[in-house]
Design a protein that fits this description.
- This protein is of the alpha/beta class and 455 residues long.
- The protein has 3 domains: 135 residues, FAD/NAD(P)-binding domain, CATH 3.50.50.60; 125 residues, 3-Layer(bba) Sandwich (FAD/NAD(P)-binding domain), CATH 3.50.50; 122 residues, FAD/NAD(P)-binding domain (3-Layer(bba) Sandwich), CATH 3.50.50.60.
- Helix content is 26%, strand content 27%.
- The strands form 8 sheets. The chain has a 5-stranded parallel β-sheet, with helices on one face.
- β13 and β14 form a beta hairpin.
- α1 packs parallel to α8.
Length: 455
């Protein structure tokens, strides 16, 4: 919808010449999927607050938005989209001059025994969020004891949903196949997240592979069996609800069937203008595409709303007759679980090795404020720098907020502009005792990384 709106905006006085048809198979459009865990947790009162623009608002803007319509095939030679009306089942063709694929990402769902049982739930759409809340209410009404929740996957969605389950009074266990939760961090930083979860009362099982889901017949769930346990190679964990937080893959099946090029995790390959190379009139943007990583110089799949909106705007500018390029990403992201804040940008150690970098590390344990100031909280910062040049490669932050995670933005800007760790260490950042020590933890870690890289 960013692309559609921007195309009409850029077309300006020529917008009457531009007919924009948008197909959406679900009941909702233009909403914050990132906000769903916070709605489930109760921080957001109603799902309508997550909707940025309704279908009617888009239509008033000149977009022919057809809800509950799904694109099922692309005929690139005939320049047609095959469409199914989800409710009626009717199928028809739509001709196009230009086609935009913005099908997003799909949650990874294990093909395991019992994975289709009632109570095994993903968290990707507003309808998913409603199902989680409905199921929790049903389980709470049936059980005298606290509802038992198992979260499969310890990434962003996993830890956010672990907090949401805690807020609903559940007994919570996180199961992750990795060495530590939050695999977007190095294991030493992920260990800090695990320790914080355990202090909150969350049981964390790492290095564990899920083998299936034990189910039971239940009159309350109709013909479907409901989940009652998660079966792993380390044991069986009782569960009244299972939340899948196993990450996402590009939802590119439509593109693959049409013969379009794909890369990492199935993401569609585009050029910087968001056009698909070698296929005239075909564009793609958002969580279904791969992006250029400015640090590793590789194409990667990173599903984030920030990238999706920017790519949509670039694509729409080009469709509307202007010119724009998407400059790439550096992998910046942030999350939280209760009071713990987590952030990262750039490369982890494993990423640096895969990209062929020799690197040095600087790590510091410090406080978010001057140590003598009330409510100064612990924070750990880790900085990676290229051996020999001192070039900044990545930063990771785990600390207690507020104020820990947003420090990553200064690091991301330094990374974006190719600065060295020494540059970051000596940058003129703000200081006052309520906000940081006189040497911010980020700058201490950068100074240590620079010394190790250049020593």
């Amino acid at each position: 919808m960013s692309a559609a709106s921007q195309a009409l905006r850029v077309a300006g006085g020529r917008r009457e010449e531009l007919e924009v048809i948008a197909l959406e198979r679900s009941h909702h459009t233009s909403y914050s999927a990132c906000g769903i865990p916070y709605w489930i947790a109760g921080d957001v009162a109603d799902r309508s607050a997550l909707v940025a623009r309704t279908a009617e608002q888009h239509r008033r803007n000149g977009i022919d938005l057809r809800m509950r319509h799904e694109a099922i095939a692309l005929d690139l030679e005939g320049r047609k989209v095959e469409v199914r009306d989800v409710d009626s089942g009717a199928e028809f063709s739509l001709p196009y001059d230009e086609v935009v694929i913005a099908t997003g990402a799909a949650p990874a769902r294990p093909d395991l025994p019992g994975s289709d049982a009632a109570g095994v739930l993903g968290v990707q759409t507003l309808d998913d969020g409603a199902r989680v809340l409905h199921w929790l209410d049903a389980m709470k009404s049936r059980r005298a004891e606290n509802c038992r929740a198992v979260v499969v996957g310890g990434g962003y969605i996993g830890i956010e949903m672990a907090e949401a389950m805690l807020r609903h009074g559940c007994q919570v266990r996180v199961v992750d196949r990795g060495e530590e939760p939050m695999s977007t961090l190095d294991p030493d930083m992920g260990a800090l997240v695990r320790e914080a979860l355990e202090k909150l009362g969350v049981a964390v099982s790492t290095g564990v592979e899920v083998r299936g889901f034990d189910t039971v017949r239940d009159e309350g769930t109709g013909p479907r069996e409901r989940v009652r346990a998660v079966v792993t190679d380390a044991g069986t964990y009782d569960a009244d609800v299972v939340v899948l937080g196993m990450g996402v893959v590009a939802n590119s099946d439509l593109a693959v069937r049409a013969g379009l090029p794909t890369g990492a995790r199935g993401g569609i390959v585009t050029d910087p203008r968001m056009a698909v190379p070698g296929h005239d009139g075909v564009w793609a943007a958002g969580d279904c595409v791969v992006s250029f990583d400015r640090v590793s110089q590789r194409r990667v799949h990173v599903a984030l709303g920030t990238h999706a909106n920017k790519q949509g705007r670039v694509l729409g500018t080009n469709l509307g007759g202007g010119y724009a390029r998407f400059p790439g990403i550096v992998g910046t992201a942030a999350s939280k679980v209760c009071e713990l804040e987590i952030a990262r940008t750039g490369l982890r150690e494993i990423d640096a090795r895969r990209a062929g970098f020799r690197y040095a590390v600087g790590t510091v344990d410090s406080t978010t404020r001057a140590g003598y100031f009330p409510d100064a909280a612990p924070i750990t910062v880790k900085v990676l720098a290229e051996q020999g040049t001192g070039r900044l490669l990545g930063v990771q932050i785990v600390g207690y907020g507020p104020g820990s995670a947003k420090r990553i933005d200064a690091c991301a800007l330094a990374l974006w502009n190719g600065m060295t760790a020494a540059d970051l260490a000596m940058a003129d950042l703000s200081y006052a005792p309520p906000f940081s020590p006189v040497w911010d933890p980020v700058q201490i870690a950068a100074r240590r990384a620079a010394a190790a890289a250049l020593g």
